[in-house]
Amino acid sequence: MKLRTILSFLAVGGLAGLSWGCLPSGPDYVEDMDIVYTTYQEDYDFQSKSTYSMPDQIVTDVKVDDGDTTYVYMDAKFANPILSEIEQNMESYGWTRVGVEETADMLLMPAGTSTTNYYYYWWYDWWWGGYYPGWWGWYYPPYYPVSSYTTGSLILVLTDPSAAETNPINKSNAAWLSVSNGILTYYNDIERVTDAIDQAFDQSPYLQTQ
């Protein structure tokens, strides 16, 4: 990700914070603080792709103890409607979902942050090694070097598994990134989460394959 993109993300958060600070008693509702941020590789040809794989669980935390890695997953009753909303949006843009055991053009990975100041590049590097053991390999850790996200953010990363074949140095190559800030703080408000997912795709018409 280019520096200007990282700075743009930080600027959005900063401006939002200033806006909320101008309110006499802060925001009236927690959803007033929802921010959906998206970015993408401007030269990436999404129209040349048509299939994607997506896991059926959402990682929310990674714990490493003496070299042993443990993954914490979102409860299925919350994860399933989130995954379903993502799939519906991808389908509406012309994408076909295939199983993780098949060869897909793209890999879409949803994740939730459980703590503030969680370094995304470190977290995803560990997740990749365990969540898809030996499948895509270590060439594709899908991270962006953004320093931190707010507690309860939903992160969607669409990455091209063939990127390392043409650019093995840039192993973190991802075509699209979405961050919905803080919406997973309260899992019971699924409508807020699905609205944010819809907004992320509304902001990303370039993902359409047809």
Number of helices: 5
Class from secondary-structure proportions = alpha/beta
Oligomer: single chain
Low-confidence parts = 1-32, 117-148, 167-172
Quickly count the domains: 1
Might you state the CATH topology name?
Double Stranded RNA Binding Domain
Strand-residue proportion: 15-25%
Show the helix and strand layout.
Layout (H helix, E strand, L loop, with lengths): L2 H20 L12 E6 L10 E3 L5 E7 L2 E6 L2 H17 L3 E3 L7 E7 L7 H12 L22 E6 L3 H4 L9 E6 L8 H13 L8
Parallel strand pairs: 2-5, 2-6
Antiparallel strand pairs: 1-8, 3-4, 6-7, 7-8
What's this, in brief?
This protein has 210 residues and is α/β, with parallel strands linked by helices. It has one domain: 2-Layer Sandwich (Double Stranded RNA Binding Domain), CATH 3.30.160.
In words, what does this structure look like?
InterPro entries: DUF4136. Keywords: Signal. With 210 residues, the protein is an alpha/beta fold. It has one domain: Double Stranded RNA Binding Domain. Helix content is 31%, strand content 21%. It contains 5 helices and 8 strands; from the N terminus they run αββββαββαβαβα. Strands 1-8-7-6-2-5 form a 6-stranded mixed sheet, with helices on both faces. A two-stranded antiparallel sheet has the order 3-4. Helix 2 runs parallel beside helix 5. The longest helix has 20 residues.
